[in-house]
Write a structure and sequence with these properties.
four-stranded mixed beta sheet, mainly alpha, 9 helices
Length: about 230
């Protein structure tokens, strides 16, 4: 299988974690923002990443959207499962996954790029990096008010997730699910922001555990012993 991705995207990380957890061999093709549309749009009709090319006879040529990729992987390789056996718990998994995908992943993006444009500029002060950051901030209409709303949303989300992840190893049920994969990926950019590292150490313990279990390199800001 071939995963078309932006190397730094937390949504693409979500797809890589799922592929790794399933033990599916895959390669990645890193695309350049902007010109990536020339590669992606003819395949899916959209310009968003990740896009998975199964390269398997009888399967779709391309699957766009990280959630659709997880659903596809569960169909083609059910073991190990990303969903509980219980149908009610499965519904809860997809509810959490959708909330993380549509709300919390977006909030993380706002807070992360705001940090990288300000206090975190020293992480990579190169012109190329700063141009990308400016383009992303402009593309998503980031301003102080919207960043604050995103930070508030993250604060509430981490309270909810903390109630589960601090008392049990998984967000839903007694096994790793698509909800854990989504949370570990979509919150991973926060590892570079000292406030979150210091305030929510349990979060990064879980992110580290899930990355190690899925055979995925840890996100920037984390080490095995952190």
């Amino acid at each position: 299988m071939l995963l078309l991705q932006f190397s730094t995207s937390h949504y693409c990380r979500k797809a890589r974690l799922a592929l790794g957890y399933k033990g599916i061999a895959f390669a990645v093709e890193n695309l350049t923002p902007g010109v990536h549309a020339l590669r992606v749009k003819p395949l899916t009709g959209a310009t968003t990443l990740p896009v998975l090319l199964p390269q398997v006879e009888g399967k779709p040529i391309a699957i766009g959207d990280s959630t659709h990729i997880l659903q596809f992987l569960e169909q083609v390789q059910p073991d190990p499962p990303l969903l509980p056996v219980d149908e009610a718990l499965t519904r809860e998994v997809w509810l959490l996954e959708d909330w993380l995908d549509e709300s919390i992943g977006t909030a993380t993006r706002f807070v992360y790029y705001d940090y990288r444009a300000g206090e975190g500029k020293q992480i990579d002060p190169s012109l190329a990096s700063q141009v990308v950051i400016r383009v992303v901030r402009s593309q998503y209409g980031m301003n102080a008010a919207r960043v604050q709303l995103a930070a508030d949303r993250l604060s509430r989300a981490l309270e909810i997730l903390g109630e589960r992840w601090q008392s049990q190893p998984y967000l839903v049920g007694d096994c790793l699910t698509a909800a854990d994969i989504a949370a570990a990926a979509l919150l991973s950019p926060l590892a570079l922001i000292p406030h979150y590292r210091q305030t929510y150490p349990w979060l990064f313990d879980r992110i580290t555990e899930i990355h190690c279990r899925c055979g995925e390199p840890l996100p920037p800001g984390l080490t095995v012993n952190s």
